[in-house]
Specification:
single chain; 315 residues; Tetracycline Repressor, domain 2; globular; 75% helix; 13 helices; mainly alpha
Length: 315
């Protein structure tokens, strides 16, 4: 990384000329939006807990850390690719012009290096999980990266993003069981519907820019009003699929309470999308959807681990 790639002290170069490690870590974490891992990871861990039900929901520290590492690396690879291939559009869009590549805070070469390193790390991690995960790993990387190109040729880009994220619960199940089953497929469908809905809401911010620059989405195709109606319907389908997931696994009170809270969060999110200005989206969008995924994980763990444990303890 050259000095030109990190202009000034804002880039993490200290006044003495040396690189500030902490600022570099923060910079790269912001570059790939590492905080947004909270969307995929709880569903992966929830799937892991259910898959390891015979072991009281815990597959062991080794497999747990491998699953977390795989999710983080796959998402880092996908986000790096997204930032690289979209850098020209990001530079022209006032909302995204301050991102690291358009602003010159990170060089394209270093971004490609991060993409390659995260891809290699993902492949290495899956090698240590099991043979099936390793064989499927290149397919998974192709899927999660391909999403970034879809807005150029299809209006259904939101579906591709949903499919990319749905690989997290499927992969976690395969990591524990080594074979597929109905529960992770139902959960994957729920994740797809969830992503379609909230990505449509997120796309409202760029409706005018995308329409003028030939970028495609359901918001551009149908208009904001119709797209929001579809987003609400698909979120209700997502909720129904989460209910089905709970019924298949015979979850009871904690999970039902979680479903009620998730339904409230979904309705509130759509109320905000219709009543508030677009300025709220980046914050409320993140917080509400992070809350949904965390509620799902917490109530799933309670249903698989804590409730059976307490029943056995007080028997």
């Amino acid at each position: 990384m050259t000095g030109s790639a990190f202009p000034g002290n804002v880039s993490g170069v200290s006044e003495s000329g040396g690189l500030n490690p902490l600022k570099q870590i923060v910079r790269w974490a912001e570059f790939v939006k590492i905080s947004h891992t909270v969307f995929a990871l709880p569903f992966a861990l929830g799937s892991m807990v259910v898959a390891a039900r015979a072991q009281q929901g815990w597959p062991g520290w080794r497999l747990f850390l491998l699953i977390v590492g795989a999710v983080v690396c796959a998402r880092t690879c996908a986000m790096s690719f997204n930032r690289i291939v979209d850098r020209r559009f990001d530079a022209e869009n006032p909302r995204t012009a301050t991102r690291h590549l358009p602003a010159g805070q990170i060089s394209v070469a270093s971004a490609w290096t991060l993409w390659a390193c995260s891809a290699i790390a993902f492949l290495a991690i899956t090698f240590y999980i099991n043979r099936l995960c390793f064989y499927l790993a290149p397919v998974a990387l192709a899927v999660v990266c391909f999403y970034s190109l879809t807005k150029r040729f299809t209006d259904f880009t939101h579906i591709y993003l949903g499919v990319a994220l749905s690989l997290a619960p499927i992969g976690a199940w395969l990591a524990v069981r080594g074979s597929i089953a109905i529960p992770p497929l139902v959960l994957a469908l729920a994740v797809i519907c969830w992503l379609i809905g909230f990505d449509i809401i997120y796309a409202l911010q760029d409706y005018e820019f995308d329409r003028k620059h030939g970028l495609r989405s359901l918001v551009v195709r149908w208009g904001p009003g119709n797209a929001l109606q579809f987003a609400f319907l698909i979120h209700m389908v997502m909720w129904a699929l989460l209910l089905l997931f709970g019924l298949i696994n015979r979850f009871r009170a904690p999970y039902i309470i979680g479903l009620v809270l998730i339904l409230f969060a979904l309705v509130f999110e759509h109320w905000l999308a219709r009543r508030r200005s677009l300025k709220w989206i980046n914050t409320a969008f993140f917080r509400l959807n992070a809350l949904i995924s965390l509620i799902f994980l917490t109530t799933t763990i309670a249903s698989v681990v804590f409730i059976p444990f307490t029943r056995k303890f007080f028997r």
